[in-house]
């Protein structure tokens, strides 16, 4: 029987994905299009900016396959009653690891001082070794584990934190509320790679920011809702937090008048930490369609109750 795949994402992506999906599903009797009668659609390749919100008319739908790793905009959609798979893409993971490691090294090596202060003053102050620096990675999923692994291989003392207990070589893994407190009290640099769910909202707030050693640094490529913005601004003003690098925000684009833009101890990047890479991501989508058609379980399923 033929299957129909609806591509519902930013229109500019269609010319890029169309040949990749067609190639990835070659040999199958398949129609892939951006416009199909809802009652004929078997799979939706989905991103929130495709505009699809009401899945009620999609009566024959078998699964929704997200192009994004973060699924907070669809996980709670009550019109969706079929399985939802999120994106775990080698290219996305590699990009995130590079971004995180780059920003950790910026802090670790004190690069700003040398890049911005070409003031004629010869004042050697060599950085410590990575083994003398503790990096705490909040979230040990596809992205957090990859970044933590590379940081550990560079010699950093890496503590990871997740919802469930884990054993990962080279990483001290903690979990649960008590684990968060223990992780933060030791962290020189905190990296947030948690999903945006009701349970993770404001993970960094006035109370948890106060647990960090004075002068700690924050790197957030996760989601804006993970941080209480007012509490962070206050902690930056008192010096409790020396600097924050923020890639994601509650409102995006970050409004021009937002205090983060003007704060001397904040670096704003415009949600570019990493992105889904079509060449590798299309393969993930096609593999999942083939698996489902062969009666095998879908990979990367979202737990709708947990929201990730
Ligand atoms: P995963 O679902 O693979 O991992 C999520 C991790 O967070 C897991 O380790 C999970 O714990 C942990 N976690 C979830 N809820 C809690 C909680 N309540 N307490 C403690 N830990 C928790 O996600 P990914 O690694 O693929 O992606 C992480 C996030 O990165 C995405 O949700 C997205 O928001 C963001 N992202 C940002 C991008 C950017 O460009 N800025 C690009 C891509 C993603 P456990 O392992 O126990 O389940």
Automatic annotation (TrEMBL):
Keywords: NAD, Oxidoreductase, Pyruvate. One of its GO terms (molecular function) is NAD binding. It comes from the Bacteria. SUPFAM superfamilies: NAD(P)-binding Rossmann-fold domains. InterPro entries: D-isomer_DH_CS (IPR029753), D-isomer_DH_NAD-bd (IPR006140), NAD(P)-bd_dom_sf (IPR036291). It holds the Pfam family 2-Hacid_dh_C. Residues 115-273 form the D-isomer specific 2-hydroxyacid dehydrogenase NAD-binding domain. This is Glyoxylate/hydroxypyruvate reductase A. It comes from Ruegeria intermedia.
């Amino acid at each position: 029987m033929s299957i129909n795949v609806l591509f519902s994402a930013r229109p500019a992506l269609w010319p890029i994905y169309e040949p990749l999906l067609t190639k990835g599903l070659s040999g199958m009797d398949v129609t892939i299009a951006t416009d199909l009668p809802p009652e004929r659609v078997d799979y939706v390749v989905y991103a929130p900016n495709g505009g699809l919100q009401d899945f009620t008319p999609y009566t024959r739908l078998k699964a929704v396959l997200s192009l994004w790793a973060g699924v907070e905009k669809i996980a709670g959609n009550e019109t969706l009653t079929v399985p939802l798979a999120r994106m775990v893409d080698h290219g996305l993971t590699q990009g995130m690891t590079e971004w995180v490691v780059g920003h950790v090294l910026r802090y670790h090596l004190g690069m700003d001082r040398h890049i911005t202060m070409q003031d004629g003053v010869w004042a050697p102050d060599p950085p410590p070794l990575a083994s003398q620096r503790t990096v705490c990675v909040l979230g040990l999923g596809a992205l957090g584990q990859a970044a933590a692994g590379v940081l550990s291989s560079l010699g950093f003392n890496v503590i990871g934190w997740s919802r469930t207990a884990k054993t990962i070589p080279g990483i001290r893994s903690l979990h649960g509320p008590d684990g968060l407190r223990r992780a933060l009290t030791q962290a020189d640099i905190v990296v947030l790679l948690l999903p945006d769910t009701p349970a993770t909202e404001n993970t960094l707030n006035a109370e948890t920011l106060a647990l960090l050693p004075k002068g700690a640094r924050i790197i957030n490529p996760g989601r804006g809702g993970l941080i209480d913005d007012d509490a962070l601004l206050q902690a930056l003003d008192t010096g409790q937090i020396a600097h924050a690098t923020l890639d994601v925000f509650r409102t995006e684009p970050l409004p021009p008048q937002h205090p983060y833009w003007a704060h001397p101890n904040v670096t704003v990047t415009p949600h570019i930490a990493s992105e889904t890479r079509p060449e590798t991501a299309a393969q993930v989508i096609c593999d999942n369609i083939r698996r489902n058609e062969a009666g095998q379980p879908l990979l990367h399923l979202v737990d709708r109750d947990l929201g990730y």
